[in-house]
Amino acid sequence: MDSQNLQNILFEQIKKSLAPHLSLVDEIAELLSISNDSAYRRIRGEKPLTFEELKKLALHYRLSLDALFNLQTDSTVFHGNYVTNQNFDFATYLKDMLRQLEHVNSFGNKDFYYEAKDIPPFHYFQFPELASFKYFFWMKTILQYPEYSKNTFDPSLLSKEILDTGRRIIDTYNAIPSVELWSIEVVNITIRQIEFYKESGVFKNKEQITLLYDQFLSLIEHIEKQAEAGAKFLFGKASDSSIASFKLYYNEVMLGHNTILAVTGDSKIVFLNHGILNYLITTDERFCNYTYESLQNLMRKSVLISAAGEKERNKFFNILKEKVAQAKALVS
Questions:
Q1: d(CA 32, CA 43)
Q2: How far is it, in rounded angstroms, from Cα 217 to Cα 201?
Q3: How far is Cα 197 from Cα 83, in angstroms, rounded to an integer?
Q4: Which of residues 40 and 299 earns the better pLDDT score?
Q5: In whole angstroms, what is the distance from residue 291 CA to residue 295 CA?
Q6: Half-sphere exposure of 201 toward its Cβ, with a 13 Å CA cutoff?
Q7: Mean pLDDT over residues 256-266, rounded?
Q8: How far apart are CA 146 and CA 140, in angstroms?
Q9: Contact in structure between 167 and 112 (CB atoms under 8 Å)
Q10: pTM surpassing 0.90?
Q11: Strand pairing of 303-304 and 259-264?
């Protein structure tokens, strides 16, 4: 394949990754600091890209040059930040999450798949004290911020800015048609976190623990209502306020990995969770297609409990609620 055809393929891949309202020419011109006319000439293949321009485009749009040049390697290119207590800022972290969701939502045709080990974080933002607890656990135990080492839990920990961003996140997520794959293990992590802090004396009183379990039950019941309707809507709202479909699958044997796949138009992007807060991201076509097929296979081996499957849905959510209720009953 000659260099002009490769250049054409490169720009075609970039175009697929852009939200529909963005202009390819404007984006390229701004990124490479050239005129629109010069950008047109590169897009049409009339002017070859320099190595520095190719590097800049590949880095900015997170493209695999192995895939572009059709190199037969076993490597897959990922990118992502590694969260530490030196670089983590929760407000920035949430804004990046919001930006990713808004990008997905900007496409007319989109689907969002979430293979869950824990309940997807978007859902927590409708329950401020529960969201505060998850944040506090990350800061104190996962990242081990020194200033949190001797702190007790404060349910009003999150700032208005963070709560507002969280609300925008759930609003945006609710606008995206989604498939979530759960097992009965999805509640275990949060229960264990609450129990760990209960035994460690981190809570100021029993009322705080009871409140968290009550909110956790409300969250589960809300997701159950969405599953029954097969649609997304905010907590406290009626199901007829839905703006996107919601498919929930129950798998009896899988242990999820918090793997996310977003399909946007003709493109796919995968987010792999690791180290609790980190995500590795790739648009590598081979890896994304493999992940898509793996999720489709997992769905075939699971039970759809949204919209239909009332018996299985009731059985599944009763197990989850019973787990939380049993943990709550131990608060003494």
A1: 12
A2: 23
A3: 23
A4: 299
A5: 6
A6: 2
A7: 89
A8: 8
A9: no
A10: no
A11: unpaired
